[in-house]
Specification:
single chain, alpha+beta, 4-stranded mixed sheet, 9 helices, elongated
């Protein structure tokens, strides 16, 4: 029998309802009504639907996979929240064709291979998705440790955030490595922080009461001291005239076309040599000085057997009172990575704020820690490998908009968490053991340098840019 759906609300399965409530995407109000956090649409649990779950062939020993399990499986494999939710609810179709591609790109009908999975917007083929889920579960069993995800929003203080409030939003996300090509194109958008807004709600009902694991958002007031420092690395470079002339002559020799100038090569080498000799004579003032400098060079090399601190420049200065002009110049040596420090003072005024502060401190500590779940060569591995910690996406916000003036950030690693539980110099706690005053110092470092192209595209076009 077809179920009638009231257009004034959306219906989902109980599993999807539980998952969305725990992640903060659905919010249960004081009236007991569950609504979508982003659209405000009322959400209800629908009756038992035979398409919600399906059994897999018992011959491979698989269990029944619920919508929530399918949603979590796709999230663990890099799908966005929207795509994973759409797949679990029937918005995408997943097709397993049972073939694999060899090195030549030809198809092989080998059932023991991993197979190819394709997705397209259509209806959801639940059997195919469950077969993928069950295959992984059966092949790897308890040896395959899944990446746990627990989303949500934490905030301090609890007062309302309105369209005129400025605050700091920090999103936690999984680090995406550069890949097999090993280098990231300068100015690419791979490390940009795209705009998201999760702090404009006036309600505290949607705030998480559980730790944030590998995902989630932390909303904090803008610290009293904020700044950004952009630097570039430069080094002093020295090259005396004799070395410069020799280097130029060697480059001229290497630029000879040995195939086209076979008969003229001796003449060409003589021409290069005479040019270097004349240039050296003009620079040194006389051939005698060049001879003197070379003698000092050979003598210094011989003396170095007894005293390694002697060099030809010192000998020339002692004997003639002069040195070779080093032609010193400051040269660009490379970009640098920016560092940011933030300091927050927590003075929780009630039980809910104390809970939020505890979860905020825990979230920073837990998500900066390396993961004991490596992946060498893309395959599951044990504790011999460590996986890169999570990245943090920092944004200055004004209501639900990007801040119109302050600097932007690229993705950052959290390099240091310094927590003082006696911010006022005295150990005092509430009845439940929560310190009355705490100080949290955070140190972040961007994962990629800032390039000039970043100011012409993406978030760099707003305000002062990076």
């Amino acid at each position: 029998m077809t179920e009638e759906v009231d257009s004034r609300y959306d219906t989902v399965s109980q599993e999807v309802m539980d998952a969305a409530l725990s992640s903060g995407n659905y919010v249960k109000g004081a009236d007991g009504v569950v609504r979508d956090y982003f659209t405000g649409t009322e959400i209800r649990v629908r009756g038992v639907d035979t398409n919600d779950t399906a059994t897999v062939n018992d011959a491979i020993g698989a269990d029944v996979a619920s919508q929530q399990e399918i949603y979590q499986e796709y999230r663990d494999n890099g799908y966005s929240h929207e795509d994973a939710l759409a797949i679990s609810q029937g918005g995408l179709e997943t097709v397993f064709d049972g073939t694999s591609s060899d090195s030549n790109g030809s198809k092989q009908g080998n059932k023991s291979s991993s197979g190819n999975y394709k997705t397209r917007k259509d209806r959801f083929n639940i059997e195919a998705a469950i077969s993928e889920y069950a295959k992984d579960k059966w092949l790897y069993g308890s040896r395959k440790k899944k990446r746990k995800i627990q989303d949500g929003i934490l905030r301090y203080p609890l007062q309302s955030l309105t369209s005129s409030t400025d605050y700091l939003q920090i999103d936690i996300g999984n680090y995406e490595p550069i890949g097999k090509r090993y280098v990231n194109t300068p100015g690419s958008s791979n490390r940009y922080v795209t705009s998201t807004s999760r702090g404009s709600s006036n309600s505290t009902a949607h705030l998480s009461t559980r730790p944030l694991i590998n995902a989630g958002t932390i909303l904090l007031p803008i610290p009293s001291q904020i700044k950004d420092t952009n630097t570039a690395a430069y080094n002093d470079s020295k090259m005396n005239g004799m070395a410069a002339t020799a280097a130029g002559a060697l480059e001229d020799v290497m630029n000879i076309d040995w195939d086209k100038e076979k008969g003229d090569i001796p003449a060409r080498l003589q021409e290069i040599g005479m040019g270097a000799f004349n240039e050296g004579a003009r620079g040194a003032g006389s051939i005698e000085f060049i001879k003197t400098r070379l003698k000092k060079q050979f003598a210094a090399q011989a003396i170095s057997l007894f005293d390694k601190n002697v060099n030809p420049e010192d000998m020339l200065a002692r004997s003639n009172g002069e040195i070779l002009n080093p032609h010193m110049e400051l040269l660009f040596s490379g970009p640098t990575l920016r560092n940011f420090r933030f300091s927050f003072k927590f003075t929780p005024r009630n039980e809910l704020e104390a809970q939020q502060v505890k979860l905020i401190i825990r979230a920073f500590k837990q998500n900066m820690a390396p993961k004991v779940r490596g992946s060498a060569g893309g395959s599951g591995s044990g504790s011999w490998f460590l996986k890169t910690p999570n990245i943090f996406k920092i944004q200055y916000k004004s209501g639900n908009r990007n801040h119109p003036f302050l600097n932007k950030f690229k993705q950052c690693f959290l390099t240091n968490v310094d927590t003082s539980y006696t911010a006022d110099g005295t150990y005092t706690t509430y009845d439940d053991g929560t310190p009355t005053s705490m100080l949290l110092d955070l140190a972040f470092k961007e994962t990629e340098p800032i390039y000039d192209d970043d100011y012409d595209q993406g978030p760099g076009t707003e305000g002062v840019g990076y």
